[in-house]
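We modelled the chain as a single entity of 138 amino acids. Its sequence is:
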Amino acid sequence: MTTQLIITALLIGLAAGILSGLVGIGGGIIMVPALVFFMHYTQHQAQGTSLAVLTLPVVILASIYYYHQCQKAGTPVDFKIVGLLGIGFITGAYFGSKIALSIDEELLKKIFAIILFYTAIKMLNWDAVFVKWVRQIF
């Protein structure tokens, strides 16, 4: 491994980790595009790498911190929900990976981009602005 590759990987991991701790995102939204653009990974390779990182206990410190802070605030993390989400996530990730590997890489990139774009529109509440604009036209 070259020094540049090591530094790039560390910076991608750092950015994903910061955003994961800050707003609960990182792997898919930061790591996958960064691996594709900066390290020239294929879409399949980037998604697999991102999932592999998540198998390690990379977010344990942030999770413990959130647990304690939410406990103090009277809004504790519900481990029953964590368990149910985990079961769903594991099952979904297995079948999702099987589907992703059967899809052409260019189509997979488009699906990924559409999901990110749709999420951004919903999070910014631009969908309501668009509907309001359309109603004004008609």
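As a brief sanity check on the tokenised model: The chain has three domains: 1-58, 63-102, 105-138. Residues 98 and 127 are 32 Å apart (CA to CA).
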